Amino acid sequence: MSRKGRGYRDSQSNVPGYNTRNTRGSVASSEYSQPSPTDTAGHYRTGSQTDQYGNYRRDTAGTPARGSFDVYSDFNNRAPDDFDERARMNLPVKEEEDTLNNASDTLDSAGGTGGILRSNSNQINPESLTKPKQRKRCCCCSRRICVFIVFFILVALGITLFFVWPRIPELQILGAKADGTPNISVDPPYIKMNFSITIEIKNPENWVPIKFNKIEAQVYDLNTIASYDRPIATGMITKYSLPPRQTSTLDFPIEVDYVGKDVNDATIQDFLSACLPSLTGGKATTLNIRVDVKLHPWAISWIIKPEITKQISDLVD
């Protein structure tokens, strides 16, 4: 070896912590003192790290001990220690950690899951989570199914009412006939008699039979109704069923029970002329009457009671 080489080695041997090789190839280390806590790396370094460098042992001063060439020169000159706890755990450096924490806070404020990047103590408590609101249910089904069920029920009810709801039939009075001999007196003036009115009933719009609890009729004399606005005769039938979509005939019984003021009462004179013309000395005349019919349908009479009015100006017995 040249003198220059020996001189360089001798000068390096005086450096504290410099390792020299003996004649047998073993590695010898000179004595060195414990470095201060505030060395160039900024961390404590203790002991040798043979496990990480193999035969190249690293001392606390960060200087390799093998050969005259410092193969770890680049690493030893760096201020941070790459083999400290943070580097070994592959954790982000301080700047990256601050960036991740800021992003985590942003996600937390927006309802995200950035809090997972934090420590376990700052993670979301499952008990504090709000359970999602469940849709309200109607009985044992969802609200949508309940709406459909109600809709179909209303449609079915409407169709049923269309067929079973009673329509008012058409009435036409065909004539009248006395049941027996009328009892008419002039002193005292009164009329007692029974007769029946033949009524034609047309029922083309009803699809089912219509049942009536009762049918009431009131008869008025059109000649005296202005001064005597009360019925001179009444009638009623009960438990009557009207067949659907056809025309039927009904003999409706009427009872006359009228008491006049005197023999010259206009109502008594009208009945005498129509029923007993021999007593008045003239020919038979017609009665001018008005018939008011009130219907009481079964099951719905408390809702509706249809009324039908017919005027007859040529009723002859």
Automatic annotation (TrEMBL):
Q: What are the BP-aspect GO terms?
A: defense response to other organism
Name used for this protein in its record: 12840_t:CDS:1
Q: Which organism is it from?
A: Ambispora gerdemannii
Where are the annotated segments for Disordered?
A: 1-71, 93-128
Q: Which GO terms describe its cellular component?
A: membrane
Look up the domain of life of the source: Eukaryota
Task: Provide the alphabetized UniProt keywords.
Answer: Membrane, Transmembrane, Transmembrane helix
- A Pfam family hit: LEA_2
Give the main localization category. Answer: membrane
Query: Which residue positions does the secretion signal occupy?
Result: none
Q: Where in the cell is it found?
A: Membrane
Q: Where is the Late embryogenesis abundant protein LEA-2 subgroup domain?
A: 198-298
Question: How does this protein lie in the membrane?
Answer: Single-pass membrane protein
Return the InterPro entries for the record.
LEA_2 (IPR004864), NDR1-like (IPR044839)
* Residue intervals passing through the bilayer: 145-165
Give the Polar residues compositional bias ranges: 10-39, 118-128
